Amino acid sequence: MSVNGKKVLHMDRNPYYGGESSSITPLEELYKRFQLLEGPPEAMGRGRDWNVDLIPKFLMANGQLVKMLLYTEVTRYLDFKVVEGSFVYKGGKIYKVPSTETEALASNLMGMFEKRRFRKFLVFVANFDENDPKTFEGVDPQSTSMR
């Protein structure tokens, strides 16, 4: 609406808007949200230089959302980059989500059986070819959702 010259009022009970899928800035607000007694270390720089998504958003490079962002011209205010890693907050600690077999073996996020299943999943993904049904292993990619 603001693109069409309309004024927009955002109201939220939080000091930020967007609910559970919002981004928190400055960094000090993130520390407050997770009730961390110490603030961010000085080595992290200015808090306002950080913008942390509560739920990371991944965009398909040629998807509808990217087209909408281009149309509304908000891309002037965005930076796109390759994902370097994904992290989760569990039990008061931050963990890197494993993306390789080596990382999975060293991770405390999964037990022994989950690590074995994860390895099988990585092998499945690495060998998957949408033009070769032999690589589907009983999964129809056109009708199966990835829950």
UniProtKB/TrEMBL annotation:
Any Pfam family matching the protein: GDI
InterPro entries named among the record's database cross-references: FAD/NAD-bd_sf, GDP_dissociation_inhibitor, RabGDI
Gene3D superfamilies hit by this protein: FAD/NAD(P)-binding domain, Guanine Nucleotide Dissociation Inhibitor, domain 2
GO-annotated biological processes: protein transport; small GTPase-mediated signal transduction; vesicle-mediated transport
GO CC entries: Golgi apparatus
Cytoplasm keyword on record: yes
UniProt name for this protein: Rab GDP dissociation inhibitor
Organism: Lynx pardinus (Iberian lynx)
